[in-house]
Amino acid sequence: MMNSFGHIFRVTTWGESHGPALGATVDGVPPGVCLEAEMLQHWLDRRKPGQNRFTTQRREADEVRILSGVYEGETTGTPVQLMIENTDQRSKDYGDIAEKFRPGHADISYWLKYGIRDPRGGGRSSARETAARVAAGGVAREALKALAPGIEIRGYMTRMGAHEIDRARFDWDEIERNPFWTPDAKAAETWADYLGALRKAGSSVGAVIEVVVRGAPAGLGAPIYAKLDTDLAAAMMSINAVKGVEIGEGMRAAELTGENNADEITMGPDGPEFSSNHAGGILGGISTGQDIVVRFAVKPTSSILTPRKTITKAGEPAEIVTKGRHDPCVGIRAVPVGEAMAACVVLDHLLLHRAQVGEGPRGRIG
Ligand SMILES: Cc1cc2nc3c(=O)[nH]c(=O)nc-3n(C[C@H](O)[C@H](O)[C@H](O)COP(=O)(O)O)c2cc1C
């Protein structure tokens, strides 16, 4: 249970940073979905390390293989087993951390809980595990393409450290043109200088990522323990380094009055229309047909070159510098991970809705 998520479309990931391989077992995949490894590779390549100078220079090919659940290019309805081999394991980069706990990492909590840990690259706590999620998200995307072709899922960075995007400059096409997956070209320029300097100094910074699901039908999500927002928040919060999750207005809703926050409803030619989207497309845990908007904050990378105080396993005071190859801003590579988690949750809820209610929303207006 602790390595799985999803109700019907159920993903279990396995493996560690420095084991021979890691992957995902994806159960509940509808039969007859076209699926080939190249389709998943497309998404994995976006998360892959070493894509530009702003991500870690580890060299992982991140090549995914489909071991089961597909026959002649189509899913069979049986579990889809995905495997990604680890090819760039340099255990010597991590020798120091076997005895010392790195501040900001899971070393101390894993040790206190289990009394044993794999220190190589952070073991199971390493964000290398997110490659498996991205592969599973690729499966979800292909299933969504077949079942609900209007759905589009896109993620982008809206903040790096103190620098936020200007929404007046928001351009969907820009997201693919810069190394930060941001819709604001000017912000990308500022961030390049800012992150370039931080990287040279061996420092790091946090970020905010927004994921939008467009074209999702009304009716996804259920009261009370299977709310769409509950599952989306849990999915995003489960990503390494995530410290905050918001739906729609999120924390800023606390600053608004009821008049400003409630999205007014009018009848349009094709059904209900909303004057705004403070709710982030979800009311009572159920999608309204508006864009579903989820946002998450990642903390600054904990592995930095400035010596930090810590202790050894024996309880002695120590200092640690986390050498090795690290992302100066994990937000960049977290974008495809957030998209993948959203794809898995949305497909899961589409299947749940079909199981309980049937095809499409049941209620009619007008
Ligand atoms: C895509 C991605 C890449 C990451 N890369 C690094 C990294 O290179 N160095 C690092 O110290 N942390 C990195 N992290 C964050 C750590 O995995 C994470 O902070 C650590 O496991 C402790 O877990 P927690 O921050 O969720 O509490 C990355 C996170 C993500 C999502």
UniProtKB/TrEMBL annotation:
It holds the Pfam family Chorismate_synt. Pathway: Metabolic intermediate biosynthesis; chorismate biosynthesis; chorismate from D-erythrose 4-phosphate and phosphoenolpyruvate: step 7/7. Signal peptide: none annotated. Reduced FMN (FMNH(2)). FMN binds at residues 124-126, 240-241, 284, 299-303, 325. The keyword Methyltransferase does not apply. NADP(+) binds at residues 47, 53. It comes from the Bacteria. Keywords: Amino-acid biosynthesis, Aromatic amino acid biosynthesis, FAD, Flavoprotein, FMN, Lyase, NADP. Its EC number is 4.2.3.5. Its cofactor is FMNH2. It catalyses: 5-O-(1-carboxyvinyl)-3-phosphoshikimate = chorismate + phosphate. CDD domains: Chorismate_synthase (cd07304). The keyword NADP applies. NCBIfam families: aroC, PRK05382.1. Homotetramer. This reaction introduces a second double bond into the aromatic ring system. Belongs to the chorismate synthase family. This is Chorismate synthase.
